[in-house]
Specification:
Blueprint: H1 4-24, H2 31-54, H3 62-103
Length: 106
């Protein structure tokens, strides 16, 4: 049987995931905000994982499996945004290199 504190912890993780999604969907976000939320999520998740060690059957519950699915979606979204940022950085570096080459002629 899941405890009230674990239900609250899972709801808090869902709320954090919602916040992360919201931040990632903005065009200009602060990576520090994401890091802070991910760290908070990890601390809360650690408590749930400790509970699962003591109660392995919880790992098969719908609540837990739903949270795992949600985590997969967040990871996919974060990977996508990281790829976009990497692509932008690559374009910036290429442009900067071009500027440096033109400066040689000045």
């Amino acid at each position: 049987m899941i405890t009230e504190s674990n239900v609250a912890a899972m709801n808090e993780i869902r709320d954090i995931d919602h916040q992360i999604k919201g931040i990632l969907q903005t065009n200009d976000f602060n990576a520090e905000d994401i890091i802070e939320l991910v760290d908070k999520r990890e601390r809360i998740l650690q408590n749930i994982l400790n509970y699962i060690k003591e109660n392995p059957s919880f790992a098969e519950s719908d609540d837990w499996l739903s949270l795992v699915e949600q985590t997969k979606q967040i990871v996919t979204l974060m990977q996508s945004e990281t790829m976009k940022i990497g692509s932008t950085l690559k374009k910036y570096r290429y442009g900067n290199k071009s500027v440096q080459q033109y400066k040689k002629f000045l």
